[in-house]
Amino acid sequence: MSTWIICLLFQAVVAGEVLKFPPGFKLGTSTASYQIEGGWNASVTSTGKGENIWDRLTHSHPELIADRSTGDVACDSYHLYEEDVRILKELKVDHYRFSLSWSRLLPGGFSNNINPDGVVYYNNLINALISNNITPMVTLYHWDLPQPLQDLGGWTNPQTAIYFEDFARVAFELFGDRVKMWITINEPSSICVGTYEADIAAPAYVRSPGIGLYLCGKTILLAHARAYRLYDSVYRKKYGGKIGITIDTIWAEPKTNASEDVDAAERVMQVGLGWWAHPIFSAEGDYPQIMKSRVEQNSKVENFSESRLPPFTPKEVKFVQGTADFFGLNHYRTLLISNHEFPSDSPPSLIKDLGVVGSIDPNWKPSPKIVPWGFRKVFNWIKNAYNNPLVIVTENGYGDGGGIQDNARVLFLKEYMKALLLALLEDGCNINGYTVWSIMDNLEWRDGYTVKYGLYDVNFNSPNRTRTPKVSAIFYRDVIKTRTLPEKWNLDTITKTVKTLKLPKFNKQN
Ligand SMILES: *[C@@H]1O[C@H](CO)[C@@H](O)[C@H](O)[C@H]1NC(C)=O
Ligand SMILES: *[C@@H]1O[C@H](CO)[C@@H](O)[C@H](O)[C@H]1NC(C)=O
Ligand SMILES: *[C@@H]1O[C@H](CO)[C@@H](O)[C@H](O)[C@H]1NC(C)=O
Ligand SMILES: *[C@@H]1O[C@H](CO)[C@@H](O)[C@H](O)[C@H]1NC(C)=O
């Protein structure tokens, strides 16, 4: 077929608004171990689950969690995983992304001691998914570091990369015969910035602005590369699966067209996303040049003897390069960015290294929290920066105060999936999957249970943690069934529609 015919077809597709997910495109939902599992001290024996950094934080500093809650029980998925599989089946998702609790498998963090109950739990979950035709997509690390490893410095300790490789080996050995989609690490920025720069994660009280985050980042990238190379050299031949990393990013929109704001927004993309993606996906490898030069320059002015950004050796650059079969993308929001140079004698920090300030536009339609064109721009930025790698959206979703009539979430999901389809069909971005965060309400880290992202409501007051579909679950089920954004979920009438929508009674048996 000649190019002009293809162009014509694409135009027809877009003009007619019949946006269809192409054959083979995967639609799923996502969770993470600490946010749903509970069973925090299940079978506390010499080989039971160990304590992780979120157990420690929620127990020792309840005042740092919005509602003083913990993940001790959460959605109780440790006991109710069959319920999770049942609701995934109701939606008929292609895949389910969940994470392994490192300290449930390796109570002390090290691979010398494996908890048999943890192995049984994940085997049961994986087998239940597979027998229901749901592809398990497994994240090795989604923020719940074993406390004993944190006590040794956590991700600022270079040795943690080796402990992570050990953990990955245990997981590949145990589950690699059935798990064909692996994600090494979820959102490195959230880990390193959230802990060492901003103190909005776990552990708390370990801030070291402008320094700790870069140590953490180097370990994370080497840990990721170790797990990838291990899989690539030993397990790929046996099992033929895929392994990637999940990187989160905002879209950084220049606040004005002035060149300094355009450059500032580009810096945010280069550092926020490129910090992780450039070493893995770019032709040159290593950190983005702008990141290296700005941190080096600031460090010099601040009288450090060397850059606060620890460099990779040439051997490490090569080791990290090319270590992903796909680009897992988490995206939630868009910010306006303007240039802002901080005084040279101000203390070291990431924001100083970036030299920017961010804001939102309160007039954004449909709302400052729903900016779908930013999503489309992210896909295009990745396509242009890294030669159009295979992208799988591993998280996208909308947080609210909870409730079944979640109109705003329906609107968000529909608009963001539309933006994804435009990036795919019109812009030629190489996207092959979309994963809603989250299948159900869960523990939203330091926000506790005050912010809800679920397609299903969870009754946290009931010992059964009853899961009830929200309107967005019905909407997503329709999307999955039709492989389109169905006409009946018309944006203009969504409010009216959902008010009169009857939630179908799902049959527990199928
Ligand atoms: C486990 O934790 C719960 C609190 O979530 C506590 O009541 C219980 O005693 C603990 N069990 C063991 C065996 O430590
Ligand atoms: C920047 O320029 C583009 C193209 O000329 C225009 O569409 C856009 O509105 C401008 N943005 C701002 C913030 O002025
Ligand atoms: C760095 O050292 C120089 C020379 O001692 C001094 O003038 C300058 O104020 C120092 N800069 C900072 C940020 O402390
Ligand atoms: C919890 O589930 C059990 C078993 O299905 C049921 O008998 C019980 O009534 C439920 N309890 C609540 C509070 O929903």
TrEMBL record:
The keyword RNA-binding does not apply. InterPro entries: GH, Glyco_hydro_1. Residues 1-16 form the signal peptide. Keywords: Glycoprotein, Glycosidase, Hydrolase, Signal. One of its GO terms (biological process) is carbohydrate metabolic process. SUPFAM superfamilies: (Trans)glycosidases. Pfam families: Glyco_hydro_1 (PF00232). One of its GO terms (molecular function) is beta-glucosidase activity. Belongs to the glycosyl hydrolase 1 family. PANTHER family: GLYCOSYL HYDROLASE (PTHR10353), LP05116P (PTHR10353:SF36). Homodimer. This is Myrosinase 1-like. The lineage of its organism: Eukaryota, Metazoa, Ecdysozoa, Arthropoda, Hexapoda.
